[in-house]
Amino acid sequence: MTAAPFRYLLRVRYGECDAQKIVYNARYGDYVDLAATEFLRAVWGNAMFGGGLDYRLVRYAIDWRRSPARYDDVVAIAVTTARIGTTSFVLAADLRRHPDGDAIAAAETTYVLVGEADQAKRPIPDDHRRRLEEGARGLVVDHAGAGACQTV
User: Fold this and answer.
1) Dihedrals φ, ψ of 41, to 5°?
2) Which pTM does this prediction carry?
3) In degrees, to the nearest 5, what angle opens at C-alpha 86 toward C-alphas 83 and 87?
4) pLDDT digits over 60-114, tens only?
5) Of 89, 102, 130, 149, most Cβ neighbours within 10 A?
6) Is residue 93 part of a domain?
C-alpha cells in the first residue's frame, strides 16, 4: 500500500475571512505557500534553508472547487511533485476540509531553483531531484492542532 501524500494542516483564522466568514480569495496563496514551504523543508531540509540554494515562485494557478473554506475550518493541503525540469519544478496542492475531505481548491506552483547568493538559475542537483521525486509521503505537519501529527 502506498503512503498518503505529504499533508499540511492549518486552521482558518478570523482575520483571513470576509464578513460572511468565508476565506478571502488572496489568502489561498498564503496557504499554498505555507504548505509548499513545509513540504520542501521535509524534502530538502537545510539544503534549502541556508544551504546555498534558494527557489523562486514563477507561476501560481488555482482552481476553486465545490465549497470555500470558512472561519475555524481545518484545511488539509496535500502537496506532491507534479513535474521536474532542468532548473524548475512544479508542486501540486490539493486543499480539502479536514476531516470530511470536501474539496476546496487545487493549485499548481512553479518554482525555479537559484543560487542563494547570486539568485541565478541553477540546474536541480541529482540528489535534490531524487528527493523531490520521493516527496515526503505519509508526513503530516499539523499547525492546526487537529491531532493528526503522525506518519501514515
Assistant:
1) -65, -40
2) 0.92
3) 95
4) 999 999 899 999 999 999 999 999 999 999 999 999 999 999 999 999 999 999 9
5) 89
6) yes
Residue numbers of the domain that contains 95: 6-137
Distance CA 12, CA 6 (A): 19
**CATH number of the domain bearing residue 40:** 3.10.129.10
Q: Tell me which residue of 50, 121, 58 sits closest to 86, measured CA to CA.
A: 121
What amino acid is encoded at 134 in this protein?
Answer: E
- Measure the CA–CA gap between 36 and 118, rounded to whole angstroms: 23
Domain count, the chain: 1
What is the Cα–Cα distance from 103 to 80, expressed in whole angstroms? 16
What pLDDT is stored for residue 49 in this prediction? Answer: 66
* CA 152 to chain CA centroid, nearest Å: 18
- Dihedrals φ, ψ of 96, to 5°? -135, 150
Radius of gyration (Cα) for the chain, nearest Å?
Answer: 16
Q: Is residue 31 part of a domain?
A: yes
